[in-house]
Amino acid sequence: TWVPDSFFSRSIFIDRDPSLFAPILNFLRTKELQPRSLGVQQLLHEAEFYGITPLVRKLQLCDELDRSSCGNVLFNGYLPPPVYPLKRRNRHSVAGSQFVSSRAPPVERAVRRSNTMPPNLGHAGILSPRGPEERPAPSQSHDHGLVRIICGHHNWIAVAYAQFVVCYRVKESTGWQTVFTSPRLEWLIDRVALNAKVMGGALGEHDKMVAVASVTEIILWSICPDGNGNEIGVFSLNVPVEALFFIGNQLIATSHTGRVGVWNAVTKHWQNQDVVPISSYDTAGSLLILGCNNGAIYYIGKDFNIKQSHVQKFPLRMKDNDLLVTELYRDPTEDAITALSVYLTPKTSDSGNWIEIAYGTSSGTVRVIVQHPETVGSGPQLFQTFSVHRSPVTKIMLSEKHLISVCADNNHVRTWTVTRFRGMISTQPGSTPLTSFKILSLDEGEGHGGCSAGTEIGPYGERDDQQVFIQRVVPDTDKLYVRLSSNGKRVCEVRSVDGTSITCFTVHECEGSSRIGSRARRYLFSGHANGSIQMWDLTTAMEIAGKVDIRGKSPTEEELLELLDQCDLALTRTPDSTPRASTCRYSLCHLYTRVYFIVLRRTMTVNISYISSKLLVLL
Predict the structure, then answer these.
(1) Which region holds residue 248: left if phi is over 0, alpha if psi is between -120 and 50, else beta?
(2) What are the residues whose beta carbons fall under 8 Å from the beta carbon of 310, sequence distance 6 or more?
(3) Could you write out the DSSP letters of every residue in 16-45?
(4) Which H or E run contains 229?
(5) In whole angstroms, how far apart are CA 613 and each of 561, 591, 592, 607?
(6) At residue 305, does pLDDT exceed 80?
(7) How far apart are CA 380 and CA 216, in angstroms?
């Protein structure tokens, strides 16, 4: 009772975990602390419950010894929140090739943003229709200071906040520097695309561009050498923009409704084209590949038999002032093509490339089709089929060594080893099953946690190298887990150096310097609720993981409980009855139930009554 106003000055009945009570009792008797045998976080939780302030302070100090404002060995840099820019002046808007006033009445048909398209996943993604909703005007429900989306191109990154975008460039001698800040917009940014370098081209004023989209409208800027930017125009797709990216110096926007918009840097012309409703897309050289609801794969471009020495600018052919859309292949069961991945083999011949396409369908089927250079007239041939998913395939990646698919069942991942001969996929023995795992992610969509377009799990990385998934388990967390996409093993975990919640992330490879022997390095960029950007060296993480035994699949059950507890506390801070909170609470119940049975099955030392109490509170 030497601590006044604690639990023990008021009660003699204790219904708590006896294993955690032992060090607390020892501290009250001797004022000594020996927490090494138990987790500091668990002991801190109990000390806070009992109200033992001296013990709480000691345990907090122990916890802070493992943290540093300078991060661990993987921490590579910190960009502070930018200065809030001035408001954008109203200018012209472009619909098709016609200039109209930006004050024109809004589109009569209400639309809703779709959060299913990543800003840059090696140009692979999935499109899904969404219900009606009015244009999202900025309001108090959106934190204007948090980072929503990050995307990279060469040695540049574009960082999108609620109403403006900032571009940064890195040089070896000077580090990261701000090169462009857009004006403050009147609406919420949903998508962002960056073009910092066009290979083999000299475009002058349009060599570097950045674009943002909200619902149906797109604003495009060119970035000048002195760091200033000029607004090229405002373009309307007239339907929700769900993918925004560059092919060379051509800006492309697509929607699940079946509309494709293209801005050509040479002709400075914007055009919309209606095609079959789109459910996925990928790019190959100058070709745009579309997976559609009718089970067909279409391409937009000159010739599917690509010759790398004759790659031209997109769009390559026009027919009656429209894009030339050609059907490439149709699924045998005509299921919707919900995920696409195109792989161009490095080995070329005079006739062209061997092109491989992996795709997933709404029924969960994964197929691989190939196009021989010698048989271009007959079209791609079905190579292999896998029926291992029972939910729609949401992501797929065909790389040099692996085939990776993800389905809608809590991000269930199946991987195969790809056998190749002279760079081309081999018929014998084919793809060997490698592993099966899940990337658990409790994402609350477009709430406080940021824009879901900025929290895609991946896989990230070059196709001729090991790719990774990025896992953010709960929305309000300062931790990310980096896992190998091939087997799910943990590469590392990163933790915010300032304790702020991570709202978005991306992985990007920056070019090396001009020095001999210099090579590109891979970085993880994390955006935070306070507006900062933190950078992590994944090249070093991969090298360290290759030298030591990589830890098992992550997070562990104990780590998952800790993260779920953080999410639960976040809900109690904002006790409202919004659909976001209700959905998050329902998902928490589901996850706690899963962990409960995992604990029972493995007879772990986690307190069962603690999990049960959490379930009761949530229910």
Answers:
(1) left
(2) none
(3) S-HHHHHHHHHHHHH----GGGS-HHHHHH
(4) strand 229-236
(5) 13, 14, 10, 10
(6) no
(7) 35
The pairing of strands 424-425 and 479-484 is unpaired
Rounded distance, CA 564 to CA 482, Å?
18
Q: Which residues, 6 or more positions from 387, have their beta carbon under 8 angstroms from its beta carbon?
A: 364, 365, 366
Pairing of the two strands 393-398 and 337-349: unpaired
| Secondary structure (DSSP) of 440-504 | -----SSSTT--GGG-----BS-TTS--EEEE--SSS-SEEEEEETTT-BEEEEEE-TT-PPEEE
Question: Could you please report the per-residue DSSP string of 542-607?
Answer: HHHHHHSPPP-BSS-HHHHHHHHHHHHHHHHHS----HHHHHHHHHHHHHHHHHHHHHHHHT-SS-
Paired sense of beta strands 229-236 and 92-95, if any? parallel
Per-residue tokens: 244:
């925004």
Q: φ and ψ at 148, to 5 degrees?
A: -100, -45
Residue reference for tokens 């953080």: 566
**277 burial level (CB within 10 Å; 0-12, 13-18, 19+):** middle
CA dihedral 535, 200, 192, 339 (to 10 degrees): -90
Q: Which two tokens stand for residue 247?
A: 């092919």
Pick from 475, 427, 484: nearest CA to 449: 475
As a CATH number, domain 1-66 is: 3.30.710.10
Confidence of residue 121 (pLDDT cuts 50, 70, 90): very low
The DSSP code for 115 is -
CA distance readout (Å), 403 to 177, 242, 394: 37, 25, 14
Q: How long, in residues, is the chain?
A: 619
The tokens for 121 are 């996943």
612/619 Cα distance (integer angstroms): 11
Tens-digit pLDDT profile for residues 57-111 = 888 887 666 667 787 889 999 999 999 888 877 654 444 333 333 333 333 332 2
Per the CB < 8 A criterion, the answer to whether 216 and 133 are in contact is no
Using CB atoms within 10 Å of the CB of residue 399, give its burial: 0 to 12 exposed, 13 to 18 middle, 19+ buried.
buried
β-pairing, 322-323 vs 318-319, is antiparallel
Q: Which residues, including other chains, have CB under 8 Å from residue 306's CB and lie 6 or more apart?
A: 284, 285, 286, 287, 344, 352, 353, 355
> pLDDT by residue (tens digit) across 559-569?
776 676 666 54
CA distance 324 to 375: 22
What does the domain layout of the chain look like in residue ranges?
Answer: 1-66, 556-619
DSSP alpha helices (H): ranges in 149-229?
A: none
Residue type at position 545: A
